[in-house]
Amino acid sequence: MTRRLYQQDAYRTGFDAVVSAVMDVNGRPGVVLEGTYFYPESGGQPCDTGTLGGVAVEAVVEEGGDVIHLLAARPEFGPGDRVEGVIDWRRRFMNMQQHTGQHILSQAFERVLGAPTVSSALGTGHSTIDVARLGLTWEDMARVEALANDMVYEDRTVEICEVSPEEAGDIRTKKTGRPGVERRLVRIVEVYDFDRSPCGGTHTRRSGEVGHIKIIRWEKVRDATRVEFLCGLLAGEDYFWKNRFVVDLAQKMTTRDTNLPGLIDDLVIEGKSLRREISGLKADLAMCRLGDLRAAAEKVGNISVIAATFDDLGLPELRQVALKAVEGGSTVALFCLKGEKAQFVFSRSDGVPVDMREPMNAACEVVGGRGGGKPEVAQGGGDGADLAEEAIARALITVRSLLADMG
Q1: What SS3 class is residue 289?
Q2: Number of Cβ atoms within 10 Å of the Cβ of 314
Q3: Could you count the other beta carbons within 10 Å of the beta carbon of residue 97?
Q4: Helix (H, G, I), strand (E, B) or coil at 343
Q5: Which overall architecture, per CATH, does domain 93-245 show?
Q6: CA within 20 to 30 Å of 280's CA: 4, 68, 225, 359, which one?
Q7: Considering just the CA atoms, what is the radius of gyration of the chain in Å?
Q8: Which residues on neighbouring strands pair with residue 220, listed in sequence order?
Q9: What pLDDT is attached to residue 72?
């Protein structure tokens, strides 16, 4: 088994090691060392990256008791050679911040809200914990975050020890062993006088190194709440872009940043009102076209068939106009909205013996889509907007055929 030296010293970034094996892992070169400071992806923590013998280490994985370093290129060294390993410190330190911060945040949720963590996932972009409680509010998050950051600012020691399963007692359990390997000792990570958790990951020496812990957002996931958070360097990066966005937006809106929430609320209300007004105006304009469309309608027996393509309506307006077109007469309307997609609304007057789903199916077949509805009105569409006119022509042929068969 590979000796996991990172468990002894998570701050070591350069080391020499003897190569145990070089292998192929799904088409990628993999290297096993007798001992490594590279952390493999496990326990919800991302792996380390860096270089091995000057070759980029793209991923580090576990297989049985071994740690396999997956390289960007086939190495020139082989078993028995001694190689230099260099770890990407910034990535390692960010992972240490997130992992230690996760322990602190999980304990804060338990102490403040009585909400234990049921699972966690650490990432290079964001991290999450799932806590066994629903209906959490911003006020709940503020209380939890305040306690977690109190522990950071107190700069408590973070100590690691190994104890027997019996000595570990009722410490909340996680997977502390490796698959297929008997675990005789439990590795315990303790944030002094606050949290004790079994864990095989890399951690900071003191809570102050975690940096600020910030809850970003949360959502309900089954019977738990998934809380997204960032710590330290990642929290700083997140704050920078959000602060820059707010400042830039306030300048564009010629207001103070504290005024933005109210201003944005007003703009949303105004936007909804304008969209309703524009929708009504578009529908009115389309209604104005109905006279010309009725005059140009094709007569099939005593039935008027109106076929038209629009590019300046929304689908709700198209439906409104299609229904209006068949009022008070013996009429079939075959209307198409041509935009990024082809969208159809086909309708008929009461008493016209045509099931509008049949011409709809014919049109949708042309544009590679599908439709549905009722005999009186059907709706559908497809991606082939450039075939919209051909689709309407096919629908018109279908209507003629149906009316001829019934005539």
Answers
A1: helix
A2: 17
A3: 26
A4: strand
A5: 2-Layer Sandwich (3.30)
A6: 359
A7: 33
A8: 225
A9: 95
* Structural fold of domain 289-406: Diaminopimelate Epimerase; Chain A, domain 1 (3.10.310)
The residue behind tokens 């990024």 is 340
d(Cα 97, Cα 116) in Å, to the nearest integer? 21
Pick the closest to residue 149 from 96, 86, 213 (CA basis): 213
Q: Are 217 and 115 in contact (CB under 8 A)?
A: no
Angle at which helix 315-325 crosses helix 260-295, to 10 degrees, equals 30
Please, is 158 exposed, middle or buried when counting C-beta atoms within 10 Å of its C-beta (0-12, 13-18, 19+)?
Answer: buried
- The answer to whether residues 394 and 336 touch, using CB atoms and an 8 Å cutoff, is no
Q: Phi and psi (nearest 5°) for 377? A: -150, 135
Residues 203, 210: Cα–Cα separation, whole Å: 9
DSSP state for residue 157 in the 8-state scheme: B
Q: What tokens appear for 332 in the block?
A: 């079939």
* Element at 129 (helix H, strand E): strand 127-131
What was the pLDDT predicted at 173?
42
Encoded amino acid at 341, one letter: K
Q: Domain 3-87, what architecture?
A: Beta Barrel (2.40)
Residue extents of the structural domains in the chain: 3-87, 93-245, 289-406
Q: Which two tokens stand for residue 233?
A: 């360097």
CB-based burial label for 77 (10 Å; 0-12, 13-18, 19+) = middle
Q: What is the pLDDT of residues 281-340, one digit of tens each?
A: 877 777 777 778 888 888 888 889 999 888 877 888 888 888 888 987 789 999 999 888
Structure tokens belonging to residue 326 = 């068949």
> How far apart are the C-alpha atoms of 305 and 395, rounded to whole Å?
11
DSSP state of 273: H
Residues 25/70, Cβ–Cβ less than 8 Å:
yes
pLDDT > 90: what percent of the chain?
A: 69
Dump pLDDT digits (tens) for 96-124: 999 999 999 999 999 999 999 999 999 88
Pairwise CA distance, residues 179 & 26, whole Å: 20
Strands 82-87 and 66-71: unpaired
Mean pLDDT of the chain: 90
Tens digits of residue pLDDT in 53-70: 999 999 999 998 899 999
State the Cα–Cα distance between residues 129 and 217, nearest whole angstrom. Answer: 11
Reported as a single tens digit per residue, the pLDDT across 323-367 is: 888 987 789 999 999 888 899 999 999 889 889 999 999 999 999
